[in-house]
Design a protein that fits this description.
- Helix content is about 25%, strand content about 20%.
- The chain is an alpha/beta fold.
- It starts with 5 loop residues before the first strand and ends in an 8-residue tail after the last strand.
- Protoporphyrin IX containing FE (HEM) binds next to α2, α3 and α4.
């Protein structure tokens, strides 16, 4: 069996904006990452990176730098997998 990944739904992700004392999470290619520790290191700056916080950043990311290997860079920041809303949520 594989690793017991946390299943993150859109409504869970929506709360992780990096504001109000919460970490900033984003979804990239179906995986969810905690980008908080990476914020000060992002070459494009914190505000740019935070545009992807609390939501699926896949398209945004691909628009600015499709050549960047996010899977390698953010491996240690992996939180779980991005899944559709489950019943009783949202
Ligand atoms: C630059 C990583 C998300 C905007 C870069 C670079 C890396 C990087 C490695 C340097 C690329 C190069 O010089 O070839 C990441 C990672 C992200 C992320 C790991 C994970 C979520 C985003 C998002 C945006 C963004 C969501 C915008 C909405 C930019 C911009 C630059 C940049 C504008 C260019 C900075 C410059 O050259 O002046 N990013 N990025 N990034 N990033 Fe990101």
């Amino acid at each position: 069996p594989g690793a017991p990944y946390l299943r993150v739904t859109p409504s869970m992700l929506k709360r992780m904006t990096g504001r109000r004392g919460k970490d900033a999470w984003t979804a990239l290619g179906g995986k969810v990452y905690n980008i908080t520790p990476y914020l000060p290191f992002h070459p494009g700056g914190e505000p740019e990176l935070l545009r992807a916080a609390g939501r699926d950043g896949t398209r945004l990311f691909a628009e600015v730098h499709p050549w960047v290997n996010w899977e390698g860079m953010l491996a240690a920041c992996l939180v779980g997998i991005y899944v559709p809303e489950e019943d009783g949520e949202g």
